[in-house]
Amino acid sequence: MAKSQLNNLSKRQILESLMHEQTQSNATLSRLITAVARTANLDPKKLSEMFVDDKGNQEYIDKFNAEVRAQHSSEHQKVTAETPEEKTDEAKSVEE
To answer: 51 vs 18, 43, 45, 56, 58, CA distance in Å?
Structure first.
């Protein structure tokens, strides 16, 4: 929603609009998850068990995030090793 449109709406109208957009986003996400689960032939009972396992889900997310950070770090180190950083004039003058 554009800023000019927001200026003409009451706080209640803005809240209702945001809630509608959130509902639409949730519905889209739900359909996407369902499509992926069905495509992967996941058992609905097993999927529901995994869905409500908050501790297991959090552990999975933590492991995933740690792996993403490790891969980013590894990629950064490769790029740094392949392209030696040139010292700027300011860095050179600090060393002297």
So the answer is: 26, 12, 10, 9, 11
Place of tokens 């509902």: 23
Dihedral sign, CA of 37, 40, 45, 50? negative
Whole-structure pTM over 0.85, yes or no? Answer: no
Query: In three state form, how does the secondary structure of 11-69 look?
Result: HHHHHHHHHHHHHHHHHHHHHHHHHHHHHCCCCHHHHHHHHCCHHHHHHHHHHHHHHHH
pLDDT tens readout for residues 18-57 = 999 999 999 999 999 999 999 999 999 998 999 899 999 9
> For residue range 60-91, what is the model confidence (pLDDT) as tens digits?
999 999 999 999 998 888 888 877 655 555 55
